[in-house]
């Protein structure tokens, strides 16, 4: 799938305009996560973001354009995090475990806030035409895991019998399910356990006890 872009706005924005738009999206994501799409209205969003009616209408003339942009904004945050230097060469089990440890810490800091999975669960309940954008966001996230597992196969660190897409789906499901349970319980342990268990399963495909481990430090 093509990367999602959110609301289609051909004109370049000033730095101030970009900051205003980002502030609106951040507050919109929090409101949608806590109240749901239908219960989030323009007045609430204007107060939370500190913008005028005309500013809100300028950037997001319809609720659908706002929701599309929220999806794109939140997805970009997640994808940028996973495409950063900490995950750029995730082609061994040590790297996957280091990513999981860092991600657990990342979610612990922002546990009370929304993340892509819980946000998507609120948006998908609506009749807005945003399914393709949500699917694209999760496809791109899953593909980051899948590409890492494929590199592990190419380096003969895990068996050719392993299915990279299936394992990537498992890792993404562990992230999403673990995050949801951690937010409900207000305890990061479910996320940590889910990620550790998913990576342990990936390790069962290792071609030797240390084939998926990077020894060079």
Shape: elongated
- The helicity comes to 55-70%
Secondary structure tally, helices: 9
Report strand %: under 5%
- If you average the pLDDT, what whole number results? 83
Q: State the secondary-structure class.
A: mainly alpha
- Low-confidence region ranges: 1-10
Describe the protein.
There is one protein chain. With 217 residues, this protein is mainly α. 65% of the residues lie in helices and 0% in strands. The chain contains 9 helices and no strands. It has helices spanning 15-35, 42-49, 53-59, 63-82, 93-109, 116-123, 131-154, 164-185, 189-203. Helix 4 runs antiparallel to helix 6. The protein is elongated.
Structure summary:
The chain is built from 9 helices and no strands. It is 65% helix and 0% strand.
What are the SSEs and their pairings?
Elements: H1 15-35, H2 42-49, H3 53-59, H4 63-82, H5 93-109, H6 116-123, H7 131-154, H8 164-185, H9 189-203
Descriptive keywords:
217 residues, disordered N terminus, mainly alpha
């Amino acid at each position: 799938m093509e990367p999602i872009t959110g609301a289609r706005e051909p004109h370049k924005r000033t730095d101030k305009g970009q900051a205003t738009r980002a502030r609106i999206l951040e507050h919109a994501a929090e409101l949608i996560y806590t109240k749901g799409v239908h219960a989030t209205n323009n007045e609430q969003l204007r107060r939370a973001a500190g913008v005028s009616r005309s500013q809100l209408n300028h950037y997001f003339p319809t609720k659908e354009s706002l929701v599309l942009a929220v999806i794109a904004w939140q997805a970009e945050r997640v994808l940028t995090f996973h495409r950063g230097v900490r995950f750029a060469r995730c082609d061994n089990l040590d790297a996957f475990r280091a990513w999981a440890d860092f991600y657990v810490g990342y979610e612990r800091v922002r546990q009370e806030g929304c993340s892509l999975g819980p946000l998507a669960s609120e948006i998908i309940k609506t009749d807005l035409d945003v399914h393709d954008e949500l699917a694209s966001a999760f496809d791109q996230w899953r593909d980051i895991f899948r590409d890492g597992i494929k590199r592990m196969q190419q380096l003969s660190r895990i068996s050719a019998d392993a299915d990279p897409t299936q394992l990537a789906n498992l890792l993404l499901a562990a992230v999403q399910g673990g995050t949801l349970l951690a937010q409900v319980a207000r305890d990061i342990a479910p996320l940590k356990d889910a990620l550790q268990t998913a990576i342990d399963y990936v390790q069962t495909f290792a071609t030797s006890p240390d084939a998926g481990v990077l020894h060079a430090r």
